[in-house]
Amino acid sequence: MDRPENRNRTGQLESSRRPGTAPVPGDVDTGLSHEEAARRLTRHGPNAVAAERAVPLYARVAAQLRDPLIMVLLAAVALTLAIGDHADSAVIALVIVVNTTVGVVQEIRADQAVAALSAMSAPSARVRRDGAETEVPSAAVVPGDVLLLGEGDIVPADARLTYASSLLIDESMLTGESVPVDKAVPPGQPDGTGPSEAAALRAGTIVVRGRGVALVTATGKDSALGRIAALLDTRPQTTPLQHRLAALGRVLALVTLALCLLVFALGLVRGTAAGTMAVTAISLAVAAVPESLPAVVTLALALGARRMAARHALVRRLPAVETLGSVSVLATDKTGTLTEGRMVVEQVWTPQGGADLTGSGYEPLGEVRIGGRPAEGRELGAVRELLTAAALCNDAELRPPSPEPSDGAQSRWAALGDPMEAALLTAAMKAGCEDRHALHRRYPRMDEEPFDSLRKRMTTLHRAPDGRVLVSLKGAPEAVLDRAVLDEPEPLLATARHNAAQLAAQGFRVLAVASGLRDDLPGRARDAETGLRLLGLAALSDPPKEAAARTLADCRAAGITAVLITGDHPATAEAIADRVGLLDSGTARGRVVTGPALAAGEVPDPTEVRIFARTDPKQKLDIVEAWRAHGHVTAMTGDGVNDGPALRHADIGVAMGRRGTEVARQAADLVLTDDELSTVVAAVEEGRRVYDNIRRFLLYGLAGGTAEILVMLLGPLLGLPLPLRAGQILWINLLTHGLTGVAMGAEPVSPGAMRRPPRPPHEHVLGDGLWQRMLFLGVVVTAGSLTAGLVARSLDLPWQSVLFLSLLVAQLGVVLGLRDRLLTRANLFLPAAVAASAGLAAAALYVPFLRSVLSTVALGWTEIALAAAAGGLGFLAARTGGRARKDGGRRCEGDVR
User: What is the rounded distance in angstroms from the CA atom of residue 170 to the CA atom of residue 207?
Assistant: First the structure.
């Protein structure tokens, strides 16, 4: 989230207590001990709503057996037993056992993968224990814990306030009220005791503004959220892709059953026994439909999400995996996403003139220079006054490097809090100002008006040594350089605005700083935001990340349009966009639109714009909705509480894991644990990989099913009375749809996956030529298999066994031919599965027990050569079809529009 200034939430409570309130009790200052917290966690249990009950194994097995196709197979077992066909009964029963086992195992693996992702995305809470602030999982919060709350936090448990500063809570998820509620400690109850609702916080509500300290009163199922959650249905929902595939499965089942009835009727016409044809038709129906597809899809999505987590992209909602493959617009913020997020003050301007600051990072080493020489006297005094006010109106802290280096030790100066505020502290130390703690002892904070994205400024009130009230204010130049705020002549304000615009045009983020003295403490801090004296401007730089330009180039290659949406100055936004290459050669330069211009209706089509500056949360939402209205799938990055609406309305909300607020993380579909924009591109690549593998399995399974039906329909017309027995059909199904089908879900990403445009979001799963390829491969496998059987019959060889082996090997040839990377070692499971299937096919011919059950005979080298030829034909057809598809697909260069 980009904003001119962001107040951090780690300020010292002692320095921000209003006069007239009693000190908070000692246990609030120190919190629970770690030992006491552990005891209470044992006593009260984890702070979590009742988890969904684990599905018992028998229920999983029963669910698998209720599948319509499995029920058909069970009927087939009963039928074969009734007519005395014990061999087919054994084969069908084996298929039921194996399919049920595979389905249950896949379901358990998918549930485990989703559970692991849920554990990784669990929210955290800031508490005070043993006198120190620490971050713990929300599930570890216990009654009596001291919560430290700030803007963007989700309240982890029911609690009662002991301190509040401009605290505004969104309780809509509990009460339905759309207007946030002010919370405060009632007068005379500084310890938070008493019945006042104004001091009560509820689990699951959101801190919209301000900060506070609260004592936890109830956790888990005893909290307000826990009581409501007990009433909810927490059963997992299927994804849109699963819905589409389920509908497709029903259509395929109806078509297949119709064709199988035709096979049954033709068999009766030829004089084949009705019982035999009934079992054959049932087996063909089961084999022709890829019944393992739903389980394969669920597993592919879950394992895809786990692979994304390994690449620092944590998926919070499973449907996001499939949606990522369709992303066509990436709306990104600037600070910390395209840029490093480590600010440094490079220049300052005061009414006495400008100055440069040397040094880099947060290390307080450097000096103030004017005209190439060290500043001194009155010049340095003006700079110090500006930076002292900026350090007072500040909640960040600087942490020095660890004195004893070790593997986990901090090796350089680091910021605790907002990077821009930390940069101001560093600049103040470079200028020779007192350090932050000394300043707060000299000027204790009495009140504050936190920053928010609409006011774009922050104000703090301090007790001056002479007893008066010192007002310190900083914020965006347009929010500060105003006669309503400053008591300065218009020429000086015009000069300041001109300098701010020049600095912003150079790519700097600019803050204006002002101060003033009051005789009495105002009723509210914002009441002091008038009649102040301008101290000057601070120009901060945040260099682009090294990988930003490469990431945006990858987006263009993948057909993804990048859009910059920032709260920063328009010139700063354009300067950064230019440095990272966001504007390609076909985009008009200088086309930057501000939030006010967008709100005024001056932009007829926001999708024509690539850079938005000075935007507020409502305008971010409008931009996302405009792209969606044009049929695009949008991914939106954000890290603040005001990004929540846009993150929820985008097709893929992307939150920053390190610097993002809890609200942003919980609103997002994807959390970047490394805060790198390149991780979004990696996640899109994984999404395309998952969808490609699902389509590949669908192509393979349907082509094989088509071939099996065609063989059974055409064989009798070519003189092969009963081409395959029921047991043989099911054995083929077991070896092709079982081992190899599951292995296809782990195939690596296609080499050209990120050099093609995104798939249209409403494209049918069999679209883009897939059903034509399915028919082509089905016909080729049918032709190769029937040819091998007919040649065997003409040579007076055991043609049915040859046809059985040829049909199986041809499908194994197809699965190898469908690989995008034929000799890759990235998925050794697939060639191993093919080898295992080939071995089991050989066992069906040479193991006496299986040979008698499946009614096969041992084959010689001539028969094996015929089957191998069919396998080679299937392989070549898959490779040729794939090559034609790749050559026909257009490459993607530049904008998707």
Answer: 6
Task: Please tell me the pTM assigned to this model.
Answer: 0.68
Q: Which of 450, 384, 390 is nearest to 421 (CA)?
A: 390
The single-letter code of the amino acid at 297 is: V
- Give yes or no for a contact between 726 and 277, defined as CB atoms under 8 angstroms apart: no
pLDDT over threshold 80, residue 667: no
Q: Is the pLDDT of residue 105 over 50?
A: yes
Residue 256, token pair as written in the block: 């297949």
In terms of Cα–Cα distance, which of 817, 812, 807, 825 is closest to 741?
812
d(CA 594, CA 615): 6
Q: Are 737 and 292 in contact (CB under 8 A)?
A: yes
By annotation, the residues acting in catalysis are 333
- The DSSP line for 830-848 is HHHHHHHHHHHHHHHHHSH
Confirm if 298 and 693 have CB atoms less than 8 A apart: no
Contact partners, residue 97, CB within 8 Å, separation at least 6: none
Strand 329-332 and strand 634-638: pairing? parallel
pLDDT tens figures, 127-156: 999 888 888 888 889 999 999 988 778 888
- How many Å apart are CA 827 and CA 824, to the nearest integer? 7
Phi/psi of residue 175, nearest 5 degrees: -105, -20
Q: Give me the amino acid identity at 30.
A: T
Q: Is the pLDDT of residue 749 over 80?
A: yes
Cα gap 472→486, rounded to integer Å? 12
DSSP states of 136-189: EEGGG--TT-EEEEETTPBP-SEEEEEEEEEEEEE-HHHH---S-EEE-PPTT-
Residues in Cβ contact with 227 at an 8 Å cutoff, skipping those fewer than 6 apart: 221
- End-to-end Cα separation, the chain, in angstroms: 26
List CB contacts of 146: < 8 A, sequence separation 6 or more: 27, 28, 31, 32, 127, 128, 129, 162, 213, 214, 215, 216
Sign of CA dihedral 494, 495, 500, 503: positive
Q: Is the pLDDT of residue 507 over 70?
A: yes
Placement of tokens 């928010």 in the chain? 452
Pairs from 849-858 (Cβ < 8 Å, separation ≥ 24):
852/87, 853/87, 853/90, 853/91, 853/727, 854/87, 854/91, 854/725, 854/727, 854/728, 854/731, 854/804, 855/87, 855/725, 855/727, 855/728, 855/800, 856/728, 856/798, 856/800, 856/801, 856/804, 857/798, 857/801
Q: Using an 8 Å Cβ cutoff, are 141 and 201 in contact?
A: no
What CA–CA distance (Å, rounded) separates 146 from 198? 18
SS3 of 398, please? strand
Angle at Cα 193 formed by Cα 189 and Cα 199, nearest 5°? 80
Asked if residue 307 has pLDDT above 70, the reply is yes
Mean pLDDT to the nearest integer, 446-463: 88
